[in-house]
Specification:
alpha/beta, D-Maltodextrin-Binding Protein, domain 2, 2 domains, six-stranded mixed beta sheet, five-stranded mixed beta sheet, 51% helix
């Protein structure tokens, strides 16, 4: 009897294991980045987010990763993810300010606010901003998985920018609140996707572009057509974000949802680490190729940041979610003594 019981126990265990294994549905998702292959943010998505999630899940979720524009234009990313053209995409919130409103700019980072990646991380994950972002984007059929914290986003220009007055008449690639900021100083903001920036600079369609960190700018060859690198950075701690089709997210079991949450965080820190490692070396390459640092004096920069703060604080009057975001940002800045 003892042997029979042991045999039954073993058989039931095998049957139970097999049933569980057979019941573990596999998921294969399409993921479009907002960057070209080889750029640090793309590498962090491909090698950290996608690969880590696949490894942690034992292959239960896998990804085909595509460069920007492969499946859909970046300006249509929100609709593309909501419709299921891709199950997940890395998007830039500020692109969708025209549809979502000021909250989109606040989500992707605004000038004159947070200064370090850890401040940005804490704002999302410790101060509750992540939950607010999920509420907002959920209205559009998109699950806001999390930010992809990014190295700084800098300006490169065809002429020196060393004062507020140098923005007058400047045609600069930008979007969202940042575009309003430059416009308030006399510039003409122009929105375009990253793939258009090089040609626009080369042909004079724009005079300057705010795009990425030194490595991202160099990988797009901007140093060939824009010989001035502007300091300080207008956006020292911006972020993109992982947008997931809501129906696809809802189909995932809880453990895979948890894995994707952790993979998104890991991708952020990998992106920052790659940027820290590469940007200093890249800047030396740029200088060797004739790029010059163009510095805005500290006093004038403080005036510019104050003007930016005035702009995003006015968003408190726009709508409920923007008002809540501004309040949260003000409270966190007060905690930081700013």
């Amino acid at each position: 009897m003892k042997k029979v019981a042991m045999a039954l126990t073993f058989m039931l265990g095998v049957v139970g294991f097999s049933a569980t294994a057979m019941g573990q549905e596999k998921f294969h998702w399409r993921l479009q980045s907002n960057l070209n292959s080889g750029e640090p943010g793309y590498v962090a998505v491909e090698e950290r987010f996608a690969k880590l999630a696949s490894d942690m899940s034992g292959g239960r979720i896998t990804f085909d990763v595509y460069p920007v524009g492969t499946l859909f234009p970046v300006s249509e990313g929100l609709e593309a993810v909501a419709s299921g053209m891709a199950e997940v995409a890395v998007l830039t919130g500020g692109y969708y300010a025209g549809k979502i409103g000021p909250f989109a700019s606040l989500e992707s980072g605004v000038p004159g606010s947070l200064r370090t990646p850890l401040e940005r991380y804490n704002f999302f994950y410790k101060k509750g901003f992540l939950d607010l972002a999920r509420d907002v984007y959920g209205q559009y059929g998109v699950y806001y998985l999390g930010p992809q914290l990014s190295p700084r986003w800098d300006i490169m220009s065809k002429k020196p920018i060393e004062s507020i007055d140098d923005f007058k008449g400047l045609k600069i690639r930008s979007f969202g609140l940042e575009a309003n900021w430059y416009e308030s100083m006399g510039a003409t903001p122009v929105f375009m996707g990253g793939g258009e920036v090089y040609t626009a600079l080369a042909t004079g369609v724009i005079d300057a572009a705010r795009w990425a960190s030194p490595t991202g700018n160099y990988n797009n060859s901007f140093q060939e057509v824009a010989k001035y690198y502007v300091e300080p950075s207008p956006l020292p701690v911006p972020n993109n974000f992982f947008a997931v089709n809501q129906a696809a997210w809802d189909k995932l079991p809880a453990d895979l949802q948890a894995i994707l949450n952790e993979a998104a965080i890991a991708s952020s820190f990998d992106y920052l680490a790659i940027g820290e490692q590469e940007d200093a070396k890249t800047m030396q390459k740029m200088l060797a190729e004739g790029v010059q640092i163009s510095t805005i004096p500290e006093q004038e920069w403080e005036q510019m940041e104050e003007a930016a703060r005035k702009l995003w604080r006015e968003y408190e009057q726009a709508d409920q979610h923007s008002a809540q975001a501004v309040q949260m940002l003000n409270e966190y800045l007060a905690e930081l003594g700013r």
